[in-house]
Each structure stands twice: as structure tokens, then as C-alpha cells.
Design a protein that fits this description.
By secondary structure, the chain is α+β, with helices and mostly antiparallel strands. The radius of gyration is 90 Å and the shape is elongated. The chain contains 25 helices and 17 strands. The strands form 4 sheets. Strands 3, 7, 8, 9, 10, 13, 14, 15, 16 and 17 form a 10-stranded mixed β-sheet that branches. Bound molecules: adenosine-5'-triphosphate (ATP). Adenosine-5'-triphosphate binds next to helix 19 and helix 22.
Length: 915
């Protein structure tokens, strides 16, 4: 093999795996063992280039002429077929140059690695490939194991004519030169160096058959002329060899390179040590070269024989050396066996590990796929769940929406029903509250009235207490003054005592003087006594005369009243109010205004005659007294005070006010200076003045109301108004009237009458409403019963003063009035008509004639105060307004009728004390 091919093989078959350098080196050593496995100490001599090793496979030279290229193609074929071999060969030198890289190499020394150790390096090719490679490849190590000497001998033995010694030498020196003779074209010269016994294993070599001996690279890149040239040279060489006699051609034993040379060569160059071996010993190259030259056969035979002789010599030497080598080989074999066992165990472990790894990988793969399946299943399940969840959500949403709609409807219905219920309840509550408010208002008004009454009472008590205090102060002042006066008098007395003592002394002297004229003094004393007795008799006669005169006065007073008429009519016109303009005032005249007026002229409404002339009728009315608008209550009372005195004298007196609503009836009767208070005051004053004349009076008052022909107690409980029934009872013998369950108030002071009037007014206002002014729709009667007793004369008197405020006398139309209002109207009209009827009946003056008192409650109540022994005064009240003119004329006409009525003589209700 030339350097070029060696280098080419080296470059093409470089072992790439650096990490497997250890085994590679071992492998390389094994390869190099072809030349490098030497006995210790002889390595340098045995070194031989493994590149010389040729495949033992034969090539048909006829079809493919033997050329240098084809000869070199065999290893190339191996190299191409199994790059492993080629690479190990190429690497051998470089590996050998680095023996220290491996302990094993160092231990075994260079080239000591047996061919069997050329196990497939631990590369990435994997165990299987290693195994296949080890089984399929022609490995020297394998051949080393399987080739025996017999086998080698059989090979060598095929060389006919070879002397046994030579054969033996060759056999033991591991060198062999095989010249095939089966085919003239098969010019392979096998010069091989087996490790032990020929080291050529044709079975392990490339399998027989046609082979492409030429390197494709060489064929493709080498110029055809050069290829042809080399083929010619090879042909010539093999031709000359064939022409040699059939004998072993001794090949001079090359001088073996020493290990040092090998190393140095490796260090200098990566080229294999072959050239060194060849150049040093001039063996193959020279031999080839010499073959190429034209030989002189005889001389050359000699030379050859010499060479063979040298070879034999060297073979003998080599035989000896080979013996040592065999021993070494045995050692190596053992070692290799151990290593192989170790390798096998490692391989087994590797195998196991790989199997475990594979199983783990499979498990991992299975787990991963299971995981992926599980993930996929989970995703599918999740999708399904999500889908179901979405559907359920949608269903729930729709259900909820339906439920919410139904709930909303129900809720709205509930709200509507609740609202209706609430409104009903609110309306009921409101009505109840309104009723309650009305009751509370009424109650509060009553409470206020009671409180006012209480306040009034308290204030009266306070005033009384203050008056008492004032009286006590006055008394105290008087006492103090008296004390002061007494002290002054004491001083005076003391002063006078001195004077008196002197006076006494003077009197004693005078007594002594008078004792001398006693008779004159006795006469003077009797004269004085007589005069005093005369004066006392005269005084008693005067008092008797006064009593007789009082009785006479009463008789005369009664006679005067009788002369005035038992029923009298006064007319009073109220003044216009501030709210009433003068234009609304009806023209009225008072002809006798300067003196006691008794006439009133009232211009009637305009009347249109048949001729169309408008005229107004002048109506003149004459009464017992006419009071104009400017008249005061006191003036009016002066005129009636004599009637009040009549009541004190034991007559029944009835004073009533008649007139339309707003004409001034209440003002005249019940105002602060009205007839009732003034009458009470007068009664008190008169009663007190009569005390000197022996009269003691008790006064009891009732205040009643006639409303709708029912009696109401205006001094009673206001809640019982219109509820409590009161009956009118008449004591016909005594001419007394009683009312059942009526409140009677003892008038112990003139101030009490104010309280009575206020209570009565309050009770009437409680019963009043806006649509029904109570004072206008009912008659009020203040009844004052006066009982007097004269403890001197034993006389008794029982008079009654009735002060009546009639309901409005205006003509009330029945049309358009219904219910309570109609009933009121009917009752008012009936009672007033009854009054007129009673007065008219009284005016007829028939004894025992029927007087229709019972036609109304009012006349029945006033039965003993109208006619008979009673004195009646009617005030006809007149409104000054033009609008009331018609009613005014009606009232005046009614009053005129009453005024024209003559009622019989009144009888005094007096009795002589039974004693
Ligand atoms: N002589 C008068 N001087 C001043 N004011 C008067 C006089 N007479 C009546 N009035 C006033 O005229 C108004 C109506 O009087 P009053 O209420 O007394 O009439 P009446 O006839 O009692 O009415 P009713 O029938 O409604 O009770 C009251 O405001 C009252 O003060």
C-alpha cells in the first residue's frame, strides 16, 4: 500500500468519537497488533505496518486485472465495507503515539493489545451494531480466536513445493507470502503477518464473490492514464512472479522498528510506521521494486536463495522469538479473555441498563401517552361538562327568568292588593282620626271651659283672699290706729287724771257744796228722764210708721206696675255694627227721642202702585218704651228694675227678648251689663237693704234651654245636652214650676251670676255647629227664684224672675229645608206662635178661659210667669239693617199685638208667717 492510499484510508476512516478513545485505542492497538503485539522487550523489532495485511479473499484477475489499485482495493473494500477496520488501521499509529493516554496501553505496552480486543468501541453506534459488527466483520481478533495452526497449515500447505522448513519458518514467524495459482490473473501476493498462526482467516474475510476492488474514490478521481499505467506495472509484476518456479519466494525479513522509532515516528507524523519499516529494511518496497525490474533469473535466483537463506535464518530467529511471542500471546489471551468477560459483563450491564432504559422509556412513553390520553379525556370531559354546565346554566337562567317574572307578577299583585288595603285602612284610619280629632277638639274645648271656670273660681278665691287680706290689713291698720289712739288717750287720760284729780277735788268741794241743795238736783233728773222716755216712744212710733210706709210702698209699687200693665213691651233698636255700612241701614225715626220715647217710625219697603209710582210706607209703632241705637243697657235696666223689685216683692216676673237673629237679644239679656247681671246685682243690693227691715232672702238660679221642644240643663254636664230628659212639673196650688234633674245654683254673691252665664254659654257652644248657631235656634231661660222672709213681721215672699232669650223670630221657610234644620224651624215657629197665642189668650182676660200653655215647652215652662199674678216684659229687638226691614216690620207688628194685650192683675206671692 502506498502512502497515498494509506493516507486516504486514514482520512476517510477517522474515528470520530473522542469520548471512546480508550476503547478505540484498544482497538487500534489490536489492529496495530498485527505488527505491534510483541513479546515484552521485542516490540520494536516486531513492529510492522498493518496496512500490509490484505484480505485473503481472492479476486478474479481475468475479469479484473490485478493492479496496484486492485491490490490496494482489497483493504479498501474492507475499509469501504467496514470502515471500522480501515479506521483502526489508520489510527494505529496515532494511537500508538499516545500510549500514555491509557493505563491499559501502558500496562500492556505498545501494541500489546490483542486483536481480539478489537471489539467494537463503545461508540454511539450502540450495542446492537457493535454486536452485528462483531459478528459480520472480519475481525482479526476473531480470526485469532478461531484460527488454528492446522488451518494455517492448510493454507500454507497448499503451496506445493515449499520446503517444510520454510513452511515451518513462515508458519512460526507469522509471515506468509501466498501466490495464488488457480488463476493466472489472480496475482495477489499475500504477504501477511499473522499474530500467531498465519493470522489470515479467509472465512472471516470478505465473503467470496465478485468484488469491486478498485476504490470508487480512486476510480473516480485518478486519471485513466495513470490508472492504466499502474495496472500495467502490476501486470508486469505478477507476470514476472508467475514466471518464477513454483517455490516459496523468500522474503527478506525486514528489520523491525523499535518502539522508540514507532513512537518518534508517530510523534512526528501521523503517518503509519510502515514507511519507516519499509524504508529501514528495504523489504517490500525494494522487493516490489526488484520484481519490477528485469531480472537475470539465475543471478536473481541466487540472490533469492541468499535472501531466502537470510530469511530462513531470520525465520529461525523469529521462531525463537515467536515462541516467546506465543507465551506472551497466551498471557494476552488470558488477559483478553478476562477483558472480554469484563466487556461482556459490562455489555450485559449495558444491555440490562439499556433494556431498563428502554423499558423505562417505554413506560415513560406509555405514561406520557396515558397522560396525553387522560388529558384528552379530561379535556373532552371538561368540554362535555362545560357544555352541560352551559346548558344547565341556560336552563336555570330561563327558569329563573320565568320564576322571576311570575314572582314579579305576584309581587305586583300583592303590592296592588296591599296598596288597596293600605288605602282602605288609611281612609278608615283617617276617618277614625278625624272622629277622634273632633271628639278631642270637643273634649279639649270642654276642658278649656272647665279650666277657665276653674281659673275663674280660683281667681275669685284669690280675689276674695286678697280682699280678706286687704280687710285684715285694714283691720290691722285700724287696730294700730286704735292702739295709737288708745295710747294717745292713755296719755290724755294720764294728763286728764291729774286734771281729774284736781277736778275730783273740786267736785268733792262741789259735792259738799251741793249736798246742801239736793232737792233741786232731783227735780232736774226726773225732768231729763221724762224727756228721754218721750223720745223713745216717739222713735218707736216712727219705725212703725216706716214699716207701714214700706208696705204701702209695695202696694203702691204693685199698683203702679199694674197700672203700667202686666205685660209691657219695650222696643230696642241696636246700633249698626262697624262692619255694616250706613247705606245698608234702614231709615228709622224716633219722634219723641228727647223724652221717654215710646214711638218708632220705620219706613217700609218701596212699593210700586198700579200707576207705577214708587212709594214707601211710614210705619209708626208705639210701645211702653222705645230705645234707640244710642241707648245703653243701664238705661234699659232702669226701666225694668222696678220689675226686678217686684220679683223681690214676691211676684213672678218674665222678661223676654223677641226679635230676628242678630237684632241684639243676647246682647241685651246676657252681655256683661245685660239685664241678667244687672238684675242679680240689684236683687242683692235690695236684699241687703231689706235686711234692716227684717227681710232675709235666698236666691237660687237655673239656666235651661228649650231646643227642639226639649229642655236642656245649661248648667249641667255638657255631654248630657240633648240627651238627658228633663220634665216640667207645676205645683198648681203654690203656683210653682219645677224641672226634674235640673242643676240649681245658689247665688250667694252677685259675682256668681257671671259664672252661671259663662257656663251656660259654653254648654250652648259645645252643642253648636257652624251650620247651626245654637243661640239662634233655641230659647234660653234664666230662672232666678227669690225667697224672702221678714223675721220682724213674719212675712214671706216667693218671687221668680224669668229672663228669656228667644230664638230668632225670622220667618223660616219650610221649603228647601230638610232633616234637623226642618225640625228646628218647625219647633221655633211653633213655640213663638204658641207664645203669641198664650199672650193673646191672656189678653182676652176671660177668667177660667183656656190658655194654651201646653202648646209648646216654652209657654208651658213660663206658665206661672205669663199672665195671672205675673208681670211680663217683652223686648222687641230691631235690626237697623235695610235687609232685615221686612222682618223688623213683622216683629214690630207682633210686638204691637202683645202691647195691645191687657193681662189681668198680678197677684203677689206672699204669705203671712203661720206663727
Ligand atoms: N245695643 C247694642 N249696642 C252695641 N252692639 C250691639 C247692640 N245690640 C246688639 N249688638 C251687637 O249686634 C250683634 C248681634 O247681637 P246679638 O247676638 O245680641 O243678637 P241676637 O238677636 O241675640 O242674635 P241671635 O238670635 O243669633 O242670638 C252682636 O255682635 C252684638 O254685640
Amino acid at each position: 500500500m502506498d502512502d497515498e492510499n494509506m493516507h486516504r484510508a486514514s482520512t476517510r476512516s477517522r474515528i470520530p468519537q473522542v469520548g471512546l478513545r480508550e476503547l478505540n485505542s484498544a482497538t487500534t492497538n489490536a489492529r496495530s497488533g498485527m505488527s505491534g503485539i510483541l513479546p515484552p522487550g521485542t516490540i520494536a523489532k516486531k513492529a510492522i505496518s498493518p496496512t500490509r495485511t490484505k484480505s485473503t479473499s481472492t479476486v478474479d484477475t481475468k475479469r479484473q486485472p490485478p493492479t496496484t489499485r486492485s491490490a490496494m482495493g482489497a483493504p479498501k473494500t474492507h475499509t469501504r465495507g467496514n470502515s471500522y477496520t480501515s479506521s483502526t488501521i489508520t489510527r494505529s499509529g496515532s494511537t500508538a503515539s499516545r500510549p500514555n493516554n491509557s493505563n491499559f496501553s501502558s500496562t500492556m505496552s505498545y501494541g500489546a493489545r490483542p486483536a481480539s480486543a478489537m471489539a467494537r468501541p463503545q461508540t454511539s453506534l450502540g450495542t446492537r451494531r457493535l454486536h452485528s459488527a462483531s459478528t459480520s466483520m472480519a475481525r482479526p481478533a476473531t480470526s485469532l480466536e478461531h484460527h488454528t495452526e492446522d488451518h494455517a497449515a492448510s493454507i500454507l500447505g497448499k503451496r506445493k513445493g515449499m520446503p517444510k522448513s520454510i513452511y515451518h519458518t513462515l508458519h512460526h514467524s507469522s509471515w506468509s507470502i501466498t501466490i495464488p495459482e488457480e488463476s493466472p490473473h489472480d496475482h495477489h501476493v499475500k504477504v501477511s503477518r499473522g499474530l500467531s498462526h498465519g493470522a489470515v482467516n479467509p472465512e472471516s474475510s470478505t465473503p467470496p464473490g465478485p468484488r469491486k476492488e478498485v476504490s470508487p474514490k480512486l476510480s473516480s478521481h485518478t486519471p485513466p492514464s495513470l490508472q492504466r499505467k499502474k495496472r500495467d506495472a502490476n501486470d508486469r509484476f505478477f507476470h514476472s512472479v508467475r514466471s518464477l518456479p513454483q517455490s516459496k519466494v523468500p522474503i527478506p525479513s525486514p528489520a523491525r522498528p523499535t518502539a522508540t522509532d514507532f513512537r518518534s515516528s508517530s510523534k512526528k507524523s501521523r503517518r503509519p510506521p510502515i514507511p519507516m519499516f519499509l524504508s529501514k529494511d528495504s523489504t517490500v518496497t525494494d522487493f516490489n521494486y526488484s520484481l519490477d525490474t528485469e531480472w537475470d533469473l539465475e543471478s536473481k535466483e541466487k540472490t533469492m536463495e541468499e535472501m531466502i537463506a537470510r530469511v530462513f535464518t531470520r525465520v529461525n530467529q523469529s521462531g525463537q522469538e515467536s515462541q516467546g511471542l506465543k507465551e506472551a500471546v497466551e498471557v494476552y489471551k488470558v488477559r483478553i479473555t478476562e477483558l472480554e468477560q469484563s466487556r461482556d459483563s459490562i455489555n450485559e450491564k449495558n444491555m440490562k441498563l439499556r433494556v431498563e432504559m428502554d423499558s423505562l422509556a417505554q413506560q415513560l412513553h406509555a405514561a406520557e401517552s396515558a397522560l396525553r390520553d387522560a388529558q384528552r379525556d379530561q379535556e373532552i370531559a371538561l368540554d362535555d361538562l362545560e357544555q352541560r354546565h352551559r346548558i344547565e346554566l341556560e336552563t336555570m337562567r330561563q327558569d329563573n327568568k320565568k320564576e322571576m317574572d311570575s314572582l314579579t307578577d305576584r309581587h305586583e299583585q300583592d303590592i296592588r292588593s296591599l296598596k288597596r288595603k293600605f288605602e282602605t285602612e288609611v281612609a278608615e284610619e283617617k276617618a277614625a282620626r278625624v272622629r277622634e280629632l273632633g271628639q278631642l277638639t270637643t273634649q279639649s274645648a270642654m276642658d278649656i271651659q272647665r279650666t277657665e271656670i276653674e281659673l275663674e273660681k280660683k281667681s275669685r278665691e284669690i280675689r276674695a283672699a286678697q280682699a280678706q287680706i286687704q280687710a285684715m290689713r285694714t283691720d290691722m291698720d285700724r287696730e294700730m290706729k286704735t292702739t295709737h289712739d288708745l295710747r294717745h288717750n292713755l296719755d290724755t287720760v294720764n294728763t286728764n287724771s291729774v286734771a281729774l284729780e284736781s277736778t275730783i277735788r273740786a267736785l268733792k268741794a262741789r259735792i259738799e257744796f251741793l249736798e246742801g241743795g239736793r232737792e233741786e238736783q232731783s227735780q232736774a233728773f226726773e225732768h231729763c228722764n221724762q224727756r228721754m222716755m218721750d223720745a223713745l216712744a216717739e222713735t218707736e212710733a216712727t219705725k212703725e210708721k216706716l214699716r207701714r210706709e214700706e208696705t204701702l210702698r209695695r202696694k203702691l209699687h204693685n199698683q203702679v206696675q199694674e197700672l203700667k200693665g202686666n205685660i209691657r213691651v219695650f222696643c230696642r233698636v241696636r246700633p249698626p255694627l262697624n262692619s255694616e255700612p250706613s247705606s245698608s241701614i234702614a231709615p228709622m225715626q224716633y219722634p219723641d227721642e228727647t223724652e221717654d220715647a215710646k214711638e218708632i217710625n220705620v219706613m217700609g219697603p218701596e212699593e210700586r202702585s198700579s200707576l207705577g209710582t214708587v212709594s214707601r210706607k211710614n210705619n209708626t209703632f208705639t210701645f211702653d218704651r222705645v230705645f234707640g241705637p244710642s241707648s245703653q243697657n243701664t238705661e234699659v235696666f232702669d226701666e225694668i228694675s222696678q220689675l226686678v223689685q217686684s220679683a223681690l216683692d214676691g211676684y213672678n216676673v218674665c222678661i223676654f227678648c223677641y226679635g230676628q237673629t242678630g237684632s241684639g237679644k243676647t246682647y241685651t239679656m246676657s252681655s256683661q251689663d245685660g239685664m241678667i247681671p244687672l238684675a242679680v246685682h240689684q236683687i242683692y243690693e235690695t236684699a241687703q237693704s231689706l235686711e234692716d227691715k227684717g227681710w232675709r232672702y235666698t236666691m237660687e238660679g237655673n239656666f235651661v234651654e228649650v231646643y227642639n221642644e226639649n229642655l236642656n240643663d245649661l248648667l249641667g254636664n255638657p255631654n248630657e245636652l240633648d240627651r238627658k230628659k228633663h220634665e216640667i212639673r207645676h205645683d198648681m196650688q203654690r203656683g210653682k214650676t219645677y224641672i226634674t234633674d235640673i242643676t240649681t245654683v245658689k247665688l250667694e254673691s252677685p259675682e256668681m251670676v257671671e259664672t252661671i252665664l259663662k257656663n251656660a254659654a259654653a254648654n250652648r257652644s259645645v252643642a253648636a255647629t257652624k251650620a247651626n248657631e245654637r243661640s239662634s235656634r233655641s230659647h234660653s231661660v234664666f230662672i232666678l227664684k227669690l225667697n224672702g222672709e221678714n223675721h220682724i213681721t213674719g212675712e214671706r215672699s216667693e218671687g221668680t224672675l224669668n229672663l228669656v232669650d228667644l230664638a230668632g223670630s225670622e220667618r223660616l221657610s219650610h221649603s228647601g229645608v230638610t232633616g234637623d234644620r226642618l225640625k228646628e224651624t218647625q219647633n221655633i215657629n211653633r213655640s213663638l206662635s204658641s207664645l203669641g197665642d198664650v199672650i193673646a189668650a191672656l189678653g182676652q182676660g176671660k177668667d177660667g178661659g183656656h190658655i194654651p200653655y201646653r202648646n209648646s215647652k216654652l209657654t208651658y215652662l213660663l206658665q206661672f210667669s205669663l199672665g195671672g199674678n205675673s208681670k211680663t216684659l217683652m223686648f222687641v229687638m230691631v235690626s237697623p239693617l235695610q235687609a232685615h226691614l221686612s222682618e223688623t216690620l213683622t216683629s214690630l207688628k207682633f210686638a204691637t199685638k202683645v202691647h195691645n194685650t191687657h193681662i189681668g192683675t198680678a197677684k203677689r206671692q206672699a204669705r203671712v208667717r203661720d206663727s
